[in-house]
Amino acid sequence: MASYSAGRRVSFFTKIFVGGIAVVAVGVLIAELLTGAVAPDCSPQSIHPLDPLCIPGYAVRTLARMTIAYAFALGFALTYGIATAMSHRASHVLLPLLDIFQSVPVLGVVPVVFLIILGTGANPPVFNQEVASIILIFTAMAWAPTFGVIAGINAIPIDIKEAAHAYGMHGSRYLRQIVLPAVFPELVWSSILAWGGGWYLIPVEEHLSFGPPPNQTQVDLPGIGRYIALAALKADLGLALFGLIVLVGIILAIDRLIWKPLGVRAEKYKYETVAAPRTTATRQSSVVAGVRRYEDRLVSPVLTFFKSERYYAARVLEITRLKRIRHITERLRFPERITRIPLWGRLLSYTIFIGLVILGLIVTIISRSQSIESGISLLATDVTAFELVVITVLSLSRLIIAYAIALSWTLGAGILIARSQRLSRLLVPIFDIGQSIPATALFPLVVILLVDPFKNSPYLGFTLNLASVLLILTGMQWYLLFNIVGAVNGVPNDILEATTAYRIRGRRFVKEILIPASFPAILIGSIQAWGGGWNALIVSEYIGPNANVPGLGSFLVQASTRNPALATVEIYASLLVMTATVLIINRLVWRRLLRKADRYKFEA
Amino acid sequence: MSKPPEPILQIKDITKIYPGEGKSTTVLDHISFDVYKEFLCIVGPSGCGKSTLLRIIDGLDKPTGGQVLFHGQPITSPSPKIGVIFQTFALIPWKTVLGNVLMAISSASIQKEEQLKIAQKYIQDVGLEGFESSYPKELSGGMKQRVGIARALALQPEVLLMDEPFSSLDALTAENLRREVVEIWRDPAYPTGSVIMVTHNVQEAVEMADRVIVLSARPAKIVDDVKIDLERPRSPRDPTLYDLADRIISKIS
Questions:
Q1: pTM value?
Q2: Chain B interface, mutation test: which of A308, A502, A522, A596, most B Cβ atoms within 10 Å?
Q3: Quick check: B84 and A501 CB within 8 A?
Q4: Does A604 map to a domain?
């Protein structure tokens, strides 16, 4: 019964973790009730903003922002997705536009949104700050569910559509009875991604300052992200870690209490034609049994948490992850569709995008009563196109180094997990927690450990570059890892048996079977990883006025501290360069390789 | 009086129990038989554990009790003297036809050139000449199974194990391939003496086999061991085959 005990060990670990968070939460709550008379001052003006008792209040504020942004993202996704999927003509423009939008690094949008909403006043109203913050979270959340809605509608089998029309289902009835149920499962899985994207912004956007030093615009919103950022500014490792653990606890709790039960339920709405990853018959049936038992307990999800058998909890964890990976795989089928879109659609979508950028530029500059020409001429004198190219190359090389490190360790780990069930049971939950930590939340820790101690040493340049690469790595590695693990687990059983029967073992097995089998997943993971890497790049290159390395990211951040007119143009310029680089790399490298990857897929 | 021939394979008291939560499932219940130079079919209702038994014989799966002897030696892992053909073909999608066949013999200590020659010979023998550099995706189901057969034959195995080799094919293709497999087995140029084929198609079993072992529903026990002494080549529409099949089907149900 070795396998049983191994499963037990894993969920024991999870249980302790979750239990620990619950105890801390209850403890804090009780402490707060007891000290109710001397409630801590948690407002932005407070002198003790890091009082741990402020945490519950902060969490509520952060969660409220996330929820509001999510509601908007959901509305956007349904509207945009249904429009795209229902009208063939509209999809010619809407699909490539969506592709461009999701290629814009979300963190790069931060200064733009702040410029538009907040202007340059020293103390913008709190309401405006909140609005800016919600818009930002929205930009991080909107794209995944939109792709989800489109994928869901596309997955409706033709016979169902025909039957619906034959029975006279049109308009809102068709929408309610056919479209929405079909979209539901995709929406659940993509919402998990959306929330992940939202959490990524939280540590960055709640505490920010920009503008030239004398009259800086300060964004200071109470929340968990601000807590971590302030702790880092004070170089307080303990408090930063505390904030981080609370943040991860909240993320994990939401994941387990909301998304996983919803995901299990969502599977009922799936059309059977969607090919499931092939696993062995025995594995599948026990998974199904696990799910069934899980559903019985949905009545009280909280009890599920603490009372459930560890064995099946680990099981459910495993399938939900596979499902998530599969969702991502479906989402990445879009590049194929985009290449089939007529030229006019593509041109129109690029025009719309550039038009939007110009519109934004005009709005920002007019709102600061400055002419566009003066801005552009300032750009020409201050920064040359050559400089932009150089810093792009510098940033790219950091991304490539981080990617090489990420690819080699995740491939190794993926192979190890595939070879050993025991290792898999031990490592996968650890990786799961690792990937739920938003990479940006680790930045303060890296600053405290790698930058502050070297402030006055000649090694600062090296540690800064190291820190930057490390931070980019945290933004990249999980996409690769989970895709590779999914692929390695997805090798069909008959192929495994054939290789055993014909005695292909050890190194040959890895080289001839495992690595080719994970090739499509490596590509898909790479596209996602590079997206995450660009995002991380923006914050990783600029840590402070005296701690930064030259690159696109630090250029973007520094731009916001310069002369306001110049800042606007520079911010837009670097954002455009970044988006263009992402799009070009996608087209030149990944899509070409993806076309070749077809041979490496197993037949359904 | 001549000495009775030595069995090639001895299946001795094989039991397989899958541990479950609470109660375990017995799949194979003390199965014993000997295999000589013959075409042996194992039939039984679906889900009775026929395929598990075949996997145990090849060393792909471990029995809970009992053992399999190959020329008196216990089998614990796949042997290069035993070839396997799978129901789902189990071809590697990124290897060509030649690559898939080579895969079987590349772990043997034969020179590269010799390996290539052997692979090409068997690809020809199964009628796939000219398709050496095709990928499995480009082939029809029947052709895929031909690759599977060539791969097993390239090992030049003494024993050939087949797990429902014709169930994924359409009826016409399956009929042709059945005849060809029997011809290959009867051809003295091939070293393969024993064939063990698992199938749920009783008609197919009586048409091809010298001997049919009938298993009961789970937990599987041997309920009958039928000799089929009909002359070869046989016609699949021979009425005596139908009678035999009827007798076996009545044992199963």
A1: 0.75
A2: A502
A3: yes
A4: no
